[in-house]
Amino acid sequence: MFVKQLSIFLENRAGRLDDALKILKDNGINIISLSLADTSDFGLLRLLVSDPEKAKQVLKERRFSAQLADILAIRIPHTPGSLSGVLGSVTAAGINIEYMYTLSVGGGDANLALKTSDQERTAEIFKEQGIHTYSQEEFS
Questions:
Q1: For the segment 31-80, what is each residue's pLDDT rounded down to a tens digit?
Q2: Which among 4, 45, 86, 138 has the fewest CB atoms less than 10 Å away?
Q3: Dist. CA 9–CA 16, nearest whole Å
Q4: Angle at 132 between CA 88 and CA 128, to 5 degrees
């Protein structure tokens, strides 16, 4: 029901992102999707990868600050109003959407990764609506 998201805190300096990506490449870890946000001092790189535990380990060995978190990854129809309908059900249940980003996985549907204030209840809502929730195995 949940997938592991890898979060890497990066100093906001030239080459640091490239260093992290090279470590993943050199260890045979495939990036499924990513989101990068920054401030003046640091960046936060969120990724779904083929082997999150290994990715965290090899990054920490190279002195990167890396953490894993459970998030939801879903597939919804790529049609006008689909996202509004799905998220409307979540917010109607009083659940806050903390962040989300798109996934680069195949097919003509829309694919999203998201974190909410109540992951378990959100997963139940998606199940009730017949929304496909990806498993970690689908990304390995």
A1: 999 999 987 788 999 999 999 999 999 999 999 999 999 999 999 998 99
A2: 138
A3: 10
A4: 55
Whats the size of the chain, residue-wise? 140
Vertex 109: Cα angle to 131 and 32 (nearest 5):
95
Under 8 Å between Cβ of 96 and 117? yes
Token reading at 2: 């949940």
Q: Model confidence at 104, in pLDDT bands (50, 70, 90)?
A: confident
Give me the domains of the chain, ranges plus CATH numbers. Answer: 3-69 (3.30.2130.10), 71-139 (3.30.2130.10)
How many whole angstroms separate alpha carbon 77 and alpha carbon 117?
Answer: 24
Q: Is 79 left (phi over 0), alpha (psi -120 to 50) or beta?
A: beta
- What average pLDDT does range 96-122 have in this prediction? 91
Cβ atoms of 71 and 5 within 8 Å: the answer is yes
3-state DSSP assignment of residue 29:
coil
> Cβ distance 26 to 20 under 8 Å?
no
CA 73 to chain centre: 7
